[in-house]
Amino acid sequence: MLRLVSALASSRTQSFALRCRPPTSKVSACFWFHSSGLHRKTAGAGEIPIIRVPKSMQKRVESVKEIVGKTNIHNVRAGRLLIQSKDPSLSQSAAHMYAKFEKPVLCSKGWKHNKSYGDYFAINRTRSVAPCVADSQKVGEEKETLFKFNHLRICKPLADVLEGMNITRPTTVQLQTVPKVMKGHNVLCAAETGSGKTLSYLLPIIHKLQAQTAPETDVEERKIHALVLVPSRELSEQVAAVSRMLCRPFGIVTKTVGGGRGVGHIKMLFKRHVPDILVATPGALVKALQRRCLDLSELSFFVIDEADTMFDPSFSGMLENILKSAIISRDPSETNGPGHKAQLLVIGATFPGGVKEVLSQVTDLGKMKIIKSKMLHFLMPHVKQTFLKVKSAEKILELHQALKVHEKDNAAVLVFCNKSTTVNWLGYSLDEIGVRHARLQGEMAAAVRSGIFHQFQKEIINVLICTDIASRGLDTSRVQLVVNYDFPLNPADYIHRAGRVGRAGGQEDAEVLNFVTHPWDVELVQKIEAAARKRTYLPGMEKDDLEPKSNV
């Protein structure tokens, strides 16, 4: 028994000695000893070395190997940058593409922390011109018959007026919309800001009106043939101004009726001059309909411009009443001949919600033509957009610095605030530091508001502080910088504000500067940054259920 135990002990000792035998080379022995934290007994030549490797070190080595194996380390490639960050490691090259379900690392990830003040990043421009212009040029190269306006089958005098306005080539949305309106279809057009949507409906309307019988000489017998419904008085004046220029060779009369006017003024407007084209705001038009100042029975065109705003709950009730006062066609065959019905044209920069519920009451949605831009709800690739995390008390200083830079170029600047009170306060602050500006907000009297934007467009004033009243549809081609002094509350407002620059035929090298202050601002900034990095549309801008199954 003792011999058996002795034999077992001897075999275990030899096996352990073999497993723990040190490396033969000196270099390997050095690494084997020091890196493993080994402890060797050297008292006697015949003693067996004892090796102890800490468990914690083993776990650390294994975790590092696992991280290196799984983590995709993003290196910024040489060349043009799409995202330029204060931290260069978070920048992204324009050539880098994320996988569909891959989550990008955001510059604004930690912006809810107080220590993030002073951080910034920029979404650089990746195109030199607006996509709506570039795409139309490609169409022209492929098919020259669509390259100029006279090939859209509009009359020559109208094409000559456009040439006199230095407008020679149609944009993509105009190439898609004008032929369908010419054929009598009801149309829903949703395209990015600054893509030329106003001309896309005015051109076919004026062409078809001038082709009809000459306007009646008797004022009492004249009827309104085209109604353009817009959300604000400033936009109504702008659309009417464009319409008057286009109608000049044909004797077609365009009038406006907007908010802030009394019932007496509205009655006199329609009693003296019944226009062929009426551009109106919902509130004023409802007053006129209630007092039977106008008749929409012979309407040929019903246009709802800035549809995403018009279908908002604040306007939708009035919009339904106005639609019921007109006779809307359900088929193109109903738009011609005696007893014709009105074509319905719905135009917007974002896909409007609630369309189906309202329009299904007056027309056949199945026969309505849907035109949707490829860049709808996307960030503009030809406009630089900078985001700066800044304290509330420091925003006025940052704004002043930005205005000083653009003052040298005599450039136009739009400064957006969320509230009318902020517009007034910011105006007083700029007065104190000697910055000449104008203010535009909804609480102003109509008589005061009427000339402010006109002065801004005529280059009398270069800095305009405003609320979102100036973000919808207004022509701001001369604007080179948009400043979001107060960051917008939702993606739609951001798209409309940023769309005041980079318009077709507008200023080049336009920019958007965003001041980010509050935690709720950061949440929207993170959505915008993620959409820019992955080159997708903004979350929260999902399409309505009326959206077509495929692009037209």
Q: Can you describe what's shown?
A:
The chain is of the alpha/beta class. The protein folds into three domains: 24-71, no CATH class; 81-128 and 380-534, Rossmann fold; 131-372, P-loop containing nucleotide triphosphate hydrolases (Rossmann fold, 3-Layer(aba) Sandwich), CATH 3.40.50. It is 38% helix and 13% strand. The protein is built from 18 helices and 16 strands. It has helices spanning 2-19, 26-34, 55-70, 131-142, 156-164, 172-182, 197-211, 233-247, 263-272, 282-290, 307-310, 313-325, 355-359, 395-407, 420-432, 446-457, 491-498, 519-534, and strands spanning 81-85, 92-93, 120-123, 187-190, 226-229, 254-257, 277-280, 301-304, 343-348, 369-372, 384-389, 412-416, 438-440, 463-466, 479-484, 511-516. The strands form two sheets. It has a nine-stranded mixed β-sheet with strand order 2-1-3-11-16-15-12-14-13, with helices on both faces. It has a seven-stranded parallel β-sheet with strand order 6-7-5-8-9-4-10. A hairpin with a 6-residue loop joins strand 1 and strand 2 (92-93). The longest helix has 18 residues, at 2-19. The protein is globular. Residues 15-20, 25-43, 139-146 and 548-552 have low confidence and may be disordered.
Keyphrases for this structure?
7-stranded parallel β-sheet; 18 helices; 3 domains; 13% strand; globular; 16 strands; Rossmann fold; 9-stranded mixed β-sheet; alpha/beta; 552 residues
